[in-house]
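Working notes for the structural subgroup meeting. M.R. asked for a predicted model of this chain before we commit to crystallization trials. I am recording the input and output together here so anyone reviewing the notebook later can reproduce the run.

Input as submitted:
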Amino acid sequence: QVQLVESGGGLVQAGGSLRLSCATSGRTFSSYTMGWFRQAPGKEREFVGTIRWSGGSPYYADSVKGRFTISRDTARNTLYLQMNSLKPEDTAVYYCAAHPGQPGGSAWTRPYQYAYWGQGTQVTVSS
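Returned structure, recorded in token form:
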């Protein structure tokens, strides 16, 4: 069974930082594209960033570029989202996702493109 489990969310002041983790299991993800998305109540699920598990440059939404960084620890089978300079507008449930292929990049920014999803972790940024 493919499992993606997010953790690391919480309450943080504007300008602060959080690091989210996505623990993966059930498959080897070396040929997968990984993504981070977020969703605020009543809003559409929004693209945050994507990276190929095998490497290459991450691609980010303009709203987070320069503030958020995606990385992965292959030994721990864990995907990360480092979030700096957080804003109240970043408040959302954050999800990691996976697709069994290696497209990545600017063409892979829509939720329906990803086959597997975690349960999400809440991030709340206070002003």
